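Q: Second attempt. The first request was missing the SMILES, so the protein and zinc ion are both included now.
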Amino acid sequence: MTLAQERALDRAMEARTRCPKCRRRYHHCLPLRTLGSCLECHDGTPADPANYVHESRHDLVA
Ligand SMILES: [Zn+2]
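A: Got both inputs this time. The predicted holo structure:
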């Protein structure tokens, strides 16, 4: 797999695992189609810190 393919795949995964409201990236797919955000943003259920990525900002400048 080429780097470009890997990036495209990662971006596709990220779209499904990152909450658009709190920008947190989870280790699992979010119910974006039904809720539009993670559970915590949706109804206040605190997310288990083990379920999301603790990242410092390291966005790739493309
Ligand atoms: Zn959220």
